[in-house]
Automatic annotation (TrEMBL):
UniProt source species: Oxalobacter paraformigenes
Name of the protein this chain belongs to: Lmo0937 family membrane protein
Keyword Transmembrane: yes
Sorted UniProt keywords: Membrane, Transmembrane, Transmembrane helix
Stored InterPro entries: Lmo0937-like
Transmembrane segment boundaries: 5-23, 29-45
């Protein structure tokens, strides 16, 4: 489940790159959130399906 959330956040980040003038700094917050979720999933070692 963590990987699904990270992928969704990553896709939103890419969409945000296309509309930077609308979101501004929010785009970078999405990227940071996606990285944090991925790192948390890797460090805890949980395998979600």
């Amino acid at each position: 489940m963590l990987y699904t959330i990270a992928v969704i956040l990553f896709i939103l980040w890419i969409i945000g790159l296309l509309t930077t003038h609308l979101f501004g700094g929010f785009v970078h917050l999405l990227l940071i959130a996606a990285v944090v979720v991925l790192l948390f999933g890797l460090l805890t070692g949980r395998r979600s399906s």
